[in-house]
């Protein structure tokens, strides 16, 4: 049998710290991802989509978020199996009742909210064993219930759970820990996991699907889901299918000149789809004042406009005036003296130094502008 | 470095369509005198254009050099020496623009020539404008007409020139226009974010406000979310409670326990019934035993009472017997007392009558005595009245004392008046035949006194007037008046003269004294007598005795009234004693009678009590038959009932019905409460579910996440803007510090130099310069006066003086300097003008000074070289 394994949609995530236009695009992309998953299911002949938790970013999303999500799912003929994760745990009478209500409004929708740990027969000979999270934080292993779930002999057992494998240590959530050998212990043919936002194979039969549309600067990979083929007695065949639109890139560049920056930028732009890339760029290094100005121009006036969004962190980039820089200013009389005063402060160190450094940079910028005007 | 302009020629330049030149300019002082509108200022502009404007420039300023309406090439020639080296410059604008400079190093043209000029004069690249910043020292020192009033503002090049001049001394560098631009931009940025008092404004304030707003929204979102979460928790808790409660209600153990309790209750009820019956039996037997016991006690008590009543009756009867004898004796004594009292009363009445008769007789006797004394006083009265009549016959009458005194005074006045007449009047004596008429009457013979005006008729119509002195007229009148009054008074009192009048008065007064003595004696002889109802006075006495006969009964003796009164007192006392005795006997009898009555009552009471006790004894006699036997039987029955009761009590104690009932009630109550609680929980859960359904639709989770991120974003923006504001703020402070610092090192020497010149023209004044070396004003008597507040004359003088100072300093530092003043000192008074001319002459010793003026007279006294602008 074939199904799509996906997780961590995090619908309704706000991105409020980003500019409105970026925010809107990201928001839209999250719902587009559902459509992409539906299309992937059709393309791979999968009748079921198993969503391993964190469909929603919060237990209390807006009505619009639920409505849009259900509508997007209802547009595809596959059956959507939604598992409550730690972000959208199945508490009494909450979020999932609302999802059910919405699902009832679309006649063609095939959506099942897995609120109890009881097996469901997906199709003859294939059983889904869900381990829904009933609370945000669960100290007990929710997948322990798999051991008690009886299925007919010879039937495929597909586990669906949300949480961190214990071996992940601090990288996963501290709660909701799952044993790494759960698939073997509970005789599962496949364990579909959620929580880890990148696609990851834990063992032969255990996979994290990753998020279909990334929502943070974590890894460069675009969003994806997994198309899984199961046959009795054979290891699962897993294929990664791209669904995401945006790439969240992180770069830490150490540069010593404007030329370094330009080279790095060129490499980045060649490799990425800049219009759909968000970049968190952390700069470090020591450059001349002139280079500092050139770098600023290159980033602010060029790169920022090419990318979907640039999150620039340039605190580590130190512009240090060369003797020539200072000499240039000294020709300007009092400006030179002001630069010297700031330079003294920087050299003296202390809490004032970073501010003095910024002020000196600023002085160079303004002096350059004043020179241009003259 | 000395710079000397030797010659200037211009062609096709503004109004100079034909070639003009000014030649023969010498080192030191030069005076170019020309009337207005002859082109002095144009000349100066041409020199500046030649040096400082690029020959290829086609800017509006350059185009304006063409004479109006002509399409020609404005050209300027300038000969000058620098440090004695001669140079010749030719510059043509617009048409076939060219520049050529000939100097010791040979001839150069075009850009090379422009370059050479820059090097020679130390200005920046030739500009499109003529301004202080680009023209260097000469721009400052060549003062156009319109700028004569403006204080010297050294341009960037001059300042750096001066700075260079002072570099060795201070090691500092001066600022520039670039500084001003940077400073202005930084200031603009500062004011974009901070107010003058460094409070946030604009975007920064907006960002701070946004943070506050975001915080508020976040707090609201957190609260709303927490409420919803709380509702979830509450719902979960309630559902758990309900689950447990339902389990509890469905528990079969509860029902079994309830049935067991019901059966226990039935057993307990039966035991209680038995105990109640035993209780009743015990009560009954005990009551019978008690009744018999009380009956026996009552019988014994009645027997004792009967005996006591019989003894009481016998005692009272004996006492009453004794009391009868006492009563008889007392009655006898009372009869004797009453008889004695009647006798004493008779004796007292007789004594009272005797006293009344005696008193009447004594009164009669006293009246007769009084009448006799009145008769005696009447005789005395009659003798006195006879004496009174005799006195009335005496002559004389009393005169008022004032009349006598007035008469005496009148006589004195008459004597004085007569004496005056006798002394002052003229004596007239007529001897001759009569009649000579005086005032119509014949004049007597002999001597007479003339005391009034007299008309003498001398006959034949002749009249002689004799007039006494005026002083005598008053004396005569006073004499006549006194005499008249004197006679009238005497006549009024009927006396011939004053002595007779006085005698009469004395006799009359003596008689009156005697008469008063008699009247007193009469009054003494006629007193009042109440006994006879006689009032005082002679008339009353006469009326009383008129016709009364003398009483001769006065011989009888008066009775002894006090003796009679004593007899009455004794009779009264005897009566009182008899009364007391009778009353005492009556009281003793009354007391004895009362005692007897009480004994009679006691006797009756004792009899009654005895009768009642006997009756009661007789009544219970029947019931008391076989009493001891019956009492023993009753005791036995009670003991048996007690035993049975103890057994029933123990049985009842084993199963306490009340306790069981209470347990059942408690169990029932608990169940009812649990059921009520179940309903309550179901309702609460429904309410919570509704709340969750309603609140859940609000998307509070999303709202909270959004609020968190927005708050963080707002805060990040604020931090970024704040950092930006802090940066520009710091930069501004540092720029100011730099300017101040350098200002201090540069301004000092400049101000010192300028002060030397200014002090000569404006004694006691010191100049003050700002950081850009612009003259700000002067200090006079410790007060700072800004340039704009000074008089025009002073402003103009300061402008020239400060330029002299700059020129000297620049010259000393090797800059090519010459001072050109276009129409200067127009506002100066004569005194100041002379002082300024002196100073210019002095300065001209160290540099070339060219003064262009239209005021020939004003500068007539100034020495130096005089040149003229002429057409070549």
From TrEMBL, chain A:
SUPFAM superfamilies (alphabetical): Metallo-dependent phosphatases (SSF56300)
Highest taxon of source: Bacteria
Domain Calcineurin-like phosphoesterase positions: 1-115
InterPro entries, per database record: Calcineurin-like_PHP, DNA_Repair-Maintenance_Comp, Metallo-depent_PP-like, Mre11_N, UCP033093_metalloPase
Entry keyword set: Exonuclease, Hydrolase, Nuclease
GO function term, MF aspect, one: exonuclease activity
Listed name of the protein: Metallophosphoesterase
Organism, scientific name: Croceibacterium mercuriale
TrEMBL record, chain B:
SUPFAM superfamilies according to UniProt: P-loop containing nucleoside triphosphate hydrolases
Coiled-coil ranges (or none): 218-248, 657-724
GO annotation, biological process: double-strand break repair
InterPro entries documented for this protein: P-loop_NTPase, Rad50/SbcC_AAA
One matching Pfam family: AAA_23
Keywords: Coiled coil
Source species, domain of life: Bacteria
Domain Rad50/SbcC-type AAA: 8-53
Any one Gene Ontology molecular-function term assigned to this protein's record: ATP hydrolysis activity
Protein name, as recorded: Rad50/SbcC-type AAA domain-containing protein
């Amino acid at each position: 049998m074939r199904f799509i394994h996906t997780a961590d949609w995090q619908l309704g995530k706000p991105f409020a710290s980003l500019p409105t236009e970026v925010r809107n695009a990201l928001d839209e992309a999250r719902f587009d991802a559902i459509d992409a998953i539906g299309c992937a299911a059709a393309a791979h002949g999968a009748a079921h989509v198993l969503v391993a938790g964190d469909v929603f970013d919060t237990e209390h999303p807006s009505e619009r978020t639920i409505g849009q999500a259900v509508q997007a799912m209802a547009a595809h003929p596959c059956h959507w199996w939604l598992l409550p994760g730690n972000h959208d745990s199945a508490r009494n009478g909450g979020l999932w009742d609302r999802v059910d209500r919405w699902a009832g409004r679309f006649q063609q929708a095939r959506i099942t909210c897995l609120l109890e740990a009881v097996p469901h027969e997906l199709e003859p000979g294939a059983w889904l064993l869900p381990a829904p999270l009933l609370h945000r934080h669960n100290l007990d292993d929710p997948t322990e219930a798999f051991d008690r779930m009886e299925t007919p002999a010879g039937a495929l057992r597909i586990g669906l759970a949300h949480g961190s494998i214990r071996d992940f240590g601090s990288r996963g959530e501290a709660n909701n820990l799952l044993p790494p050998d759960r698939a073997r212990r509970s005789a599962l043919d496949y364990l579909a996991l959620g929580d880890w936002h990148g696609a990851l194979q834990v063992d032969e039969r255990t996979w994290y699907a990753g998020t279909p549309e990334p929502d943070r600067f974590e890894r460069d990979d675009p969003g994806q889901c997994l198309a899984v083929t199961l046959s009795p007695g054979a290891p699962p065949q897993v294929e990664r299918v791209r669904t995401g639109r945006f790439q969240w890139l992180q770069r830490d560049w150490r540069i010593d000149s404007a030329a370094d920056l330009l080279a790095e930028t060129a490499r980045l732009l060649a490799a990425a789809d800049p219009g759909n890339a968000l970049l968190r760029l952390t700069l470090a290094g020591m450059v001349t004042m002139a280079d500092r100005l050139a770098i600023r121009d290159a980033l602010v006036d060029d790169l920022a406009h090419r990318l979907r969004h640039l999150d620039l962190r340039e605190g580590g980039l130190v512009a240090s005036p060369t003797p020539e820089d200072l000499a240039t200013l000294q020709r300007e009389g009092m400006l030179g003296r002001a630069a010297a005063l700031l330079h003294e402060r920087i050299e003296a160190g202390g809490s004032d130094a970073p501010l003095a450094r910024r002020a000196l940079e600023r002085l160079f910028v303004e002096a350059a502008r004043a020179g241009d005007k003259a | 470095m000395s710079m000397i302009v030797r010659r200037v020629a211009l062609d096709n330049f503004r109004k100079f369509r034909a070639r003009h030149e000014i030649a023969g300019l010498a080192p030191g002082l030069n005076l170019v005198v020309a009337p207005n509108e002859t082109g002095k200022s144009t000349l100066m502009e041409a020199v500046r254009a030649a040096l400082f404007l690029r020959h290829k420039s086609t800017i509006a300023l350059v185009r304006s050099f063409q004479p109006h309406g002509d399409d020609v090439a404005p050209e300027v020639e300038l000969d000058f020496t620098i440090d004695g080296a001669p140079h010749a410059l030719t510059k043509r604008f617009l048409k076939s623009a060219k520049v050529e400079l000939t100097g010791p190093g040979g001839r150069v043209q075009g850009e090379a020539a422009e370059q050479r000029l820059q090097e020679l004069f130390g200005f920046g690249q030739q500009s499109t404008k003529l301004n202080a910043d680009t023209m260097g020292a000469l721009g400052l020192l060549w003062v156009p007409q319109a700028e004569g009033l403006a204080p010297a503002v050294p341009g960037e090049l001059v300042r750096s020139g001066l700075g260079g001049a002072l570099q060795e001394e201070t090691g500092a560098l001066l600022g520039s226009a670039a500084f001003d631009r940077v400073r202005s931009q930084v200031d603009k940025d500062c004011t974009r974010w901070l107010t003058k008092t460094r409070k946030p404004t604009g975007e920064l304030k907006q960002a701070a406000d946004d943070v506050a707003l975001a915080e508020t929204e976040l707090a609201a979102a957190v609260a709303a979310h927490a409420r919803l979460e709380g509702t979830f928790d509450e719902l979960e808790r309630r559902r758990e409670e309900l689950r447990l409660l339902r389990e509890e209600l469905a528990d079969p153990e509860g029902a079994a326990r309830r049935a067991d309790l019901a059966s226990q209750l039935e057993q307990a009820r039966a035991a209680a019934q038995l105990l109640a019956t035993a209780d009743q039996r015990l009560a009954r037997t005990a009551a019978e035993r008690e009744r018999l016991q009380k009956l026996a006690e009552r019988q014994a008590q009645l027997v004792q009472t009967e005996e006591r009543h019989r003894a009481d009756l016998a005692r009272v009867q004996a006492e009453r017997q004794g009391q009868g004898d006492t009563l008889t004796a007392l009655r006898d004594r009372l009869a004797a007392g009453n008889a004695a009292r009647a006798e004493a009363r008779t004796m007292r009445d007789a004594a009272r009558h005797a006293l009344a008769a005696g008193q009447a007789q004594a009164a009669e006797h006293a009246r007769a005595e009084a009448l006799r004394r009145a008769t005696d006083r009447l005789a005395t009265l009659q003798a006195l009245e006879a004496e009174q009549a005799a006195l009335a016959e005496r002559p004389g009458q009393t005169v008022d004392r004032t009349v006598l005194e007035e008469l005496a005074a009148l006589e004195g006045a008459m004597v004085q008046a007569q004496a005056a007449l006798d002394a002052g009047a003229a004596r007239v004596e007529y001897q001759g035949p009569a009649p000579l008429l005086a005032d119509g009457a014949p004049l007597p013979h002999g001597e007479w006194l003339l005391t009034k005006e007299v008309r003498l008729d001398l006959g034949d119509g002749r009249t002689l007037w004799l007039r006494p002195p005026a002083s005598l007229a008053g004396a005569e009148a006073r004499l006549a008046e006194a005499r008249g009054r004197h006679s009238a008074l005497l006549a009024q009192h009927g006396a011939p003269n004053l002595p007779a009048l006085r005698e009469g008065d004395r006799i009359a007064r003596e008689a009156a004294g005697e008469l008063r003595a008699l009247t007193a004696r009469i009054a003494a002889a006629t007193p009042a007598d109440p006994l006879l109802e006689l009032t005082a006075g002679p008339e009353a006495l006469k009326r009383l005795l008129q016709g009364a006969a003398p009483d001769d009964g006065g011989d009888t003796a008066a009775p002894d009234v006090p003796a009679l009164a004593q007899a009455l007192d004794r009779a009264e006392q005897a009566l009182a004693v008899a009364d007391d005795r009778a009353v005492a006997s009556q009281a003793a009898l009354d007391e004895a009678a009362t005692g007897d009555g009480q004994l009679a009552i006691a006797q009756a009471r004792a009899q009654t009590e005895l009768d009642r006790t006997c009756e009661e004894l007789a009544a219970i006699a029947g019931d008391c038959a076989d009493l001891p036997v019956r009492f023993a039987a009753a005791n036995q029955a009670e003991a048996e009932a007690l035993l049975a009761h103890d057994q029933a009590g123990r049985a009842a104690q084993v199963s306490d019905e009340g306790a069981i009932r209470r347990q059942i009630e408690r169990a029932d109550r608990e169940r009812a409460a649990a059921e009520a609680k179940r309903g309550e929980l179901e309702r609460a859960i429904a309410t919570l579910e509704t709340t969750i359904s309603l609140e859940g639709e609000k998307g509070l989770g999303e709202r909270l996440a959004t609020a968190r991120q927005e708050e963080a974003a707002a805060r990040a923006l604020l931090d970024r803007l704040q950092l930006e504001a802090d940066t520009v703020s710091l930069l501004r402070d540092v720029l100011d510090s730099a300017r101040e610092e350098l200002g201090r090192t540069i301004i000092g020497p400049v101000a010192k130099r300028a002060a030397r010149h200014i002090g000569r023209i404006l004694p006691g004044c010191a100049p003050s310069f700002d950081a850009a070396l612009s003259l700000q004003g002067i200090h006079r008597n410790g007060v700072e006066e800004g340039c704009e507040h000074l008089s025009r004359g002073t402003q103009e003088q300061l402008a020239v003086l400060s330029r002299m100072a700059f020129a000297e300093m620049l010259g000393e530092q090797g800059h090519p300097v010459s001072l050109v003043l276009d129409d200067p000192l127009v506002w100066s008074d004569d005194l100041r003008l002379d002082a300024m001319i002196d100073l210019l002459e002095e300065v001209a010793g160290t540099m070339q000074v060219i003064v262009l003026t239209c005021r020939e007279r004003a500068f007539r006294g100034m020495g130096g070289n005089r040149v003229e602008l002429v057409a070549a």
